Amino acid sequence: MAVPDPTLSGRAENSESARTPEARRPSKGRAAAVIVCLVLAALLTTPAAIAYWGQRTLNDTTRYVDTVGPLVNSPEVQDAIATKVTDTIQQEVDIEALLNNVFSGVITDRPRLQQLVGPLSGAINSLIDRQVREFLASDQFADLWTAANTRAQQSLQRILKGDQTGAVSLQGEQIVLDVSQVIDQVKQRLIDRGLTILKNVPVPDVDKQIVLVEAPQVKQMRTIYAFANPVAQWLIVVVAGLYLLALVLSRRRPRTTVIIGAALAANALLIALALSVGRQLFIDALSGTTFGPASAVFYDTLLSYLERGRQVFFRLGLAIMVIGWFAGPNKSGSAVRAAVRDGLEGIGAALANGPVGTAGRWVAGNARWLRVVIGLLGAVVLLWGNNISQGRLFWSLALVAVLLIIVQLLVGAGRAATPSRPVPPAEAVAGTAN
């Protein structure tokens, strides 16, 4: 969030006009370096943002659990898990066959009792479904969900590294979630409520899994992970460094600032397109599976951090473009800049008496560096804690704007408090003679 020095642009233009064309012509090597930095940074911004999201969300257990934690209250996710658990129990326990077996002697003597088997079977199946959904809505399941996702994140790391053990594992061409603990908990609740026929009914391991991702390209995923993971944490720093280097090397910094803002905004739109395409592919891959109805909410939640960051950087790009326009030599920007500068310095001049004027003289002499520090402070506020949000962007921009206004007020006070240079006697005599 580097802030160009807008108040000095007007004065710089006067001195610039006095230079020869050769002095004003930028170095070809320097201009080429700026172009290279901007092109590389623009090309790497989207990969860096996605890699940073993956490194922070998928590699960080705490952030992963915090990200997917709200899914415990998602109706779509609860329905998907409830359907899987209920179908698994009902598939392994043929309630109607068990009732026929239990009442076989009675039904032989009283055939009309056969008509009760269907309703009784339906009632028991309804009880199973109700108990499953009550458990999924309980605090006990919320705790189990947190623990399961903690293990899932750790297991996902092992999958990407080639180790296929844990709550999430690779089965053939599918990545699956093990819900055996949920099934065991529900079975115990049903047994405690008198449905003891479930006590000795085994559930095969294959029926304790929910398909999360169809992954025929798992080998490619592992290759990408092996390559990207070591550099993911630093790639976004490299991109920021390239943007900053381009700004430092540029002789036309306002224009470069506009280009940087446009690059950020364009990459934010590119990420939005990638997320939209990826969302549809993810939904299509899981259509027809148990987890299919919950695939959209799962995808949106898992990538919520990246989506929030994308929105922030789109708005940040627009803000940087406005800053570049404000600081540039264009007529409209120069007019607005001059009006703001003169207005603030006029207010500051009215406060020039006393300590304000003294402080203003120091600020006027160091205004350029103070503006750089303010820009860096705004960047720190925005990025602190790796928790970028639109609210934080607003407050960081507001902080920068307020501090820049204070600096310009003090500059006006300092200039008004600085005594004018006395005219030397020789110059005064010469002026009189003329």
TrEMBL record:
Keywords: Membrane, Transmembrane, Transmembrane helix. The keyword Transport does not apply. Residues 1-25 are annotated as: Disordered. The chain crosses the membrane at residues 31-53, 231-249, 256-275, 312-328, 369-386, 393-411. Residues 13-25 have a biased composition (Basic and acidic residues). This is Integral membrane protein. It comes from Kribbella pratensis.
